[in-house]
Amino acid sequence: MSQMNPPRILDPHQVPVSGTDAHLPAVPASRLSAPALRERFTNIGAWQPEHAGDGGIRAHRLQAHAAVLVPLVQRDDGLHVLLTRRTEHLRDHAGQISFPGGRVEAHDDDLAGTALREAHEEVGLPPGQVSVIGQMPAYTTVTNFVVTPVVALVKPPFDLVLDTFEVAEAFEVPLPFLMNPAHHRRHVFTYEGGQRQFLSMPWLGRGPDGAPREYFIWGATAAMLRNLYRFLAH
Question: So what's the pLDDT on residue 118?
Fold first, then answer.
């Protein structure tokens, strides 16, 4: 098996952890408020994302453009990132944690329009309560999607309505947790002919039944969150 066509990682939980980045500083709380984020996206400056993607691994697929919404929900205790858990029957990324989003359609005005439309279709997030504040650099996924993260502030209250074909669950994770590299774990997946590396950010939350459960954030979603960390820590 060639290095350009590695096997799929079917169970990332079983891939060994090579370390964490606890030596790196967390983003200060003062930078994680809604006003601070608005200011940061108006003064982007020169910076480089840490992860541009893992595109090319399955280059036989035609490249497609997509956008995801990074919804930062303004709660009383600070900002929370709204994420989804995909249903188990989907062809790509079944059961994985992801941002709401999808493929760019011809009728979308722009990438922000794609992200807002998809978030409304997937989880029922009302566009009128979403304020886009900026975009992150595109990330090319293993399935050859060029994905642009669109960052937005979301004003509650709202009632989510999930597209149960695509989305099994929606949940929130405190932004400070995700912006602390002590919670960023590095994994090395070794196979005959090469290695792949990826990040994970496991979050212990509560499921729909109220019972504790682990949400294993990894792959492209974790990489895009890591890029957001680099951007806010810069």
Answer: 97
Strands 130-135 and 145-154: what pairing?
Answer: antiparallel
For 209-219, give one letter per residue: b (16+ CB within 10 A) or e: eeeeeebbbbb
Dist. CA 161–CA 123, nearest whole Å: 5
Are the C-beta atoms of 93 and 9 separated by less than 8 Å?
Answer: no
Asked if 95 and 215 touch (Cβ cutoff 8 Å), the reply is no
3-state secondary structure of 24: coil
According to DSSP, the residues that pair with 201 across neighbouring strands are none
- pLDDT digits 0-9 by tens, 192-216: 777 888 999 999 999 888 999 999 9
Chain centroid offset of residue 195 CA:
23
Amino acid, single-letter form, for residue 33: S
Gap between the terminal Cα atoms of the chain: 39
Question: Domains in the chain, please, with CATH?
Answer: 15-233 (3.90.79.10)
User: pLDDT tens digit string along 149-169?
Assistant: 999 999 999 999 999 999 999
CA–CA distance, 115 with 103 (Å, rounded to integer)? 9
Query: 180: closest CA among 225, 126, 150, 118?
Result: 225
φ, ψ of residue 222 in degrees (nearest 5)? -65, -40
Helices 219-233 and 34-42 pack at an angle, to 10 degrees, of 80
